[in-house]
Amino acid sequence: MSSLAEAAVALGYGVASALVPIVNAEAFAVVAGHRGGHALVAVVVALALGQTAGKLLLFESARRGSGRLARKVAKRGKSGRAAARAARWTEPIRRWLSRRRTALPTVLASAAVGVPPLAVVSLAAGTAGLRRWEFAVACLSGRVIRFALLVLPAVLA
User: Fold this and answer.
1) Which of 21, 47, 112, 117 meets the CB 3.0–4.6 Å disulfide criterion with 142?
2) Which residue windows are transmembrane per the record (predicted)?
3) What is the average pLDDT across 136-151?
4) How many domains, in total, are found in the chain?
5) Alpha-carbon distance values, 53 to 7, 28, 131, 132 (Å)
């Protein structure tokens, strides 16, 4: 397979893995590392770009839908106890991600390490008002680091 085709497959697989939880991008990176070849850097970057594009879709859907979701929750008229419990968990996360000095390291750590899960962070960052380009840069950087570290042992062996 040509380098361009391998990168295109990695890009598509990255998008799919960002949106469908059972599709594993990390496994794809490890297999690509064992295959080796001169296109490995392109595959890692394309996989990270695909993941970032998929997470940006989650980010944007949360950003655009956050107002609608808040209205639906308000219409349902949750009991006071359930509303207090939901606020106790959601408000600190929203405050944490609404500050740039804490939000960007959180996104970077989530993308590189996987804790907290990047899908959850993507949705929360979208509702918290984080800038799209900042989210994208932090997410892409973290994903490149993660996939490069996964590929490295296979390359060195």
Assistant:
1) 112
2) 37-58, 103-129
3) 97
4) 1
5) 15, 17, 15, 11
